[in-house]
Amino acid sequence: MQHWTTIVAEKRARTLSRIPNEWMHPNIIQDMAEKNVKNACKYLDGILPVDEVNITSLDATALVENIASKKLTSYQICYAFCHRAALAHQILNCCIEIFFEEALERAKQLDAYYASTGKLKGPLHGVPFSLKDQVNLPNIETTIGYVSKVGQKADKMSLLAKLLHEQGAIFFVKTAVPTAMLASETVSTLHGRTLNAVNTSFSSGGSSGGEGSLIAAKGSPLGVGTDIGGSIRIPAAFQGLYGLRPSHGRVPYMDVTNSYEGQELISSVIGPMSSSLRDLELFTKLVVDCESWRYDPDVVPIPWRNFDGQQTQKLRFGIMTWDGMVLPHPPILRALEETRKVLIHHGHEVVEWNFPHSEELIDVAEQVYGADFFNEVEEILNESEEPVSDYMQLARNNILAKGGLGKPLSVRQWWEVSLKIRKLKQQYLEHWRDTANQTSDGKPIDSIICPVWPSAGFHDREVEHGCENYTMPFNLLDYSCVVLPITEVDEMKDKPNQAHLAKNASDKKMQDFYDAKKFGKMPVCLQIVCKRLEEEKCLAIASIVESCLSTMP
Amino acid sequence: MQHWTTIVAEKRARTLSRIPNEWMHPNIIQDMAEKNVKNACKYLDGILPVDEVNITSLDATALVENIASKKLTSYQICYAFCHRAALAHQILNCCIEIFFEEALERAKQLDAYYASTGKLKGPLHGVPFSLKDQVNLPNIETTIGYVSKVGQKADKMSLLAKLLHEQGAIFFVKTAVPTAMLASETVSTLHGRTLNAVNTSFSSGGSSGGEGSLIAAKGSPLGVGTDIGGSIRIPAAFQGLYGLRPSHGRVPYMDVTNSYEGQELISSVIGPMSSSLRDLELFTKLVVDCESWRYDPDVVPIPWRNFDGQQTQKLRFGIMTWDGMVLPHPPILRALEETRKVLIHHGHEVVEWNFPHSEELIDVAEQVYGADFFNEVEEILNESEEPVSDYMQLARNNILAKGGLGKPLSVRQWWEVSLKIRKLKQQYLEHWRDTANQTSDGKPIDSIICPVWPSAGFHDREVEHGCENYTMPFNLLDYSCVVLPITEVDEMKDKPNQAHLAKNASDKKMQDFYDAKKFGKMPVCLQIVCKRLEEEKCLAIASIVESCLSTMP
Fold first, then answer.
1. Is B132 a catalytic residue?
2. What are the residues whose beta carbons fall under 8 Å from the beta carbon of A253, sequence distance 6 or more?
3. pLDDT digits over A12-27, tens only?
4. Which of A268, A499, B281, B382 lies 20 to 30 Å (CA to CA) from residue B118?
């Protein structure tokens, strides 16, 4: 067997080798630095041909419209996105598998199909679609960040990929993930580090950081990430994107490669990420309409239900300013306050959301994530002798510090964790119902609005300056969550919060980490949260909130 | 602490003491023997006043109609059922908690409510409703067959009980279960043995045997059992009743006491048992209409969906004659054949159902049931020092014989079991889809028809002459199943199957066990099986099948 360093070097070279020579730009990072540009998206807008910039500025919905009306061909679109993705990858290191040639060939076929039949294949006809590495495609490797998985191809195409393909999507890249997908940044010994497309000195977030980075650079209009602790929402929030964490059983996960397969207490879910909210709905409705419960036994047979809320209807919101453990940074707090004001201004009602067992939500979720004491990860790392990741060391120390056993749980300890989760779910639902006592019309809230992450991100190699406090609870609860861009960090408005006395060490660390200048102009997103299996409602409410925000003075 | 024998004696005496003196009949078993009657239901018809017999012959649907039209009062109905249940218990030992006084008081209140408002409380207004012991009620013990739980009252009323109460149900008894609910008969050191109401020399089945026995004796019109391996369906089948095993998440299990709480790979589910099919639908629609997902996080937000199949519409059935491991007895095979003929006669289509991985379904399910090597059961038994049950010894030996570890699984072994289940679910669904290749119109089957149990039951103390081969798979798959009475054992028609060569030791044991005379006149039921969360369809199809059978020449 080859030494792991050789495997890594060859894998990285192979990925790059799939980029056509004419799209290679060996000095691209240097060029950005010389031009003093940190925003990869803006930089690419400046160096790409105008017609390609115009195309890549469109969302999936608009792309299909342009194809349908024959203003653009699939080929033109695919070419523009492949080109841009090629350059984005050279800046951001966001892709792990590249197959532009096959994508362009398929685009030609789709154009021919449309020309000859006058029909589109489906609602995604001709749309370039990026996939997180976990999604399996024929003859393409799935390495999920492990050196030892280089060369491994899944025997089955993921069901979701099949459905999207049938509806006309064109796959052209698979995007990078951290080792085993178990981190809130995107770094692995295998592929290196994925940078933030809005500001390359920041982390792309993770674990769907490759996806977030590529989409934010407009190298892909629409793609899928997965989320077991925030992995769709964190990279979406760090890069000003829209993302949906659906509930388990709404979007098929069948034959998607994963860590800890068979772990069913907190299910990893797969969902869309895009620079457009309506694209999230396009994707989700399309997938639900495929009735994938006929194929995937984990999918719940719930057809698409239009949310009957009208723009004019009064909604009730619970705002969770903070969880009592780690206070969000000033820009996040400002986003919450601005959203609150604008919602009230539009006649909606806002109450406070303070769930009294937030700490337990985090503790129990961590018991799930560390249940096998990372034995599976270690075993797979050992196969290639690649070094144990910093992440795993941190995570293990965290478990031991919390009184963990230093070994995997027994099945009975696992059932105890399961019972704790059930109890927390019941308590959360009860707390939700009890908001009826706070609203003027005695109805419970429709949705929670809360931070995604306590800061607007972190610089690379600063992952420990963060916490999944605002994402993990909704994985444990299995609620539907939409990430919505609200504003950006404003040095003038977002002064440090001197009055706040840190509650604990994590809180102090987070507050000390704030520096308005450092975060300047970084996007600020919030989460719209609805209950389990309320994806339609969550997307519709996100749209209403966005529409209210658009009228903000 | 008292000796366990004292606790048992006192508990049994306490249960009996809740029966009014005028309803005590100390010689009832002797009287039946003298009259040479084995059927408790028929016996009770003979000794009870005619008006009470008339009332107790009605199903829940008819009872509510009679209350609504003021032909009967709740009190009259409650009195008749309490009286009959009191006698049934003295024959069958089917109850564990008795509270007639409270029930009759509530009946009076309901009558007064109706008289003063002209409104019924709900679709179960005034219907006596029996509950398997696991269901928690205020101030009433929940012992689930353990001596050590005597005196324990749950701190919360089960959500389902609350909902049923709100809809007008009158609780009057809780019914007996085997120790820990882990058996296909109903026997415990605590309460003794529950007899079959159709023929008292047979077992009532289990674990909802108390419920099945009481309802078959017409001591209750409608009740709920639970099912993790067949526990609703087996007692229903052994006593000629209707029963629904809903999918997990359709009927709320919240705050129902259980064994192995937190074990979530094969979920115990709660569902109705009755002597009427329409009562199953009455119950299920009512419960779904309560939108209990607002309270129980495990309930899936799927409203009641009327199945659009008409009596005249062609349906497609897969008939599973046997699973390739244990051939059902001749009466069961005849029931399948008669059903097949009658369905074809009515224009429906029937294809063969042969899932190739039946053995794996059983093996994997057993890995789940034995995952903790019965440590929990043993611990609870030890608290009172009651002896280890025969059932647990058998089950443990079975695990060891199959290469089990003799100790609980680790969390990673548990995840492996979980993965096996997911794979089997996918294979089953694929096999179901593939039936489209067998039907004339290229559509997959609507439903499977199959045995519930390979025999029409077993005599008391013969539980080892049985197997859950036809029930357990649908627990693992989480499919919706309705038990439907088809015929009864006929000595003349159901001659032993001489031609069959036993496939294995279990098969031989089952075949050797057959004796047409011994089973004579025992009810024969079959299962109608639909996919996960298809309760409405399953109930509607059962009704169509029943209607076809009613025209059988």
1. yes
2. A160, A226, A267, A268, A269, A270, A296, A298
3. 999 999 999 999 999 9
4. B281
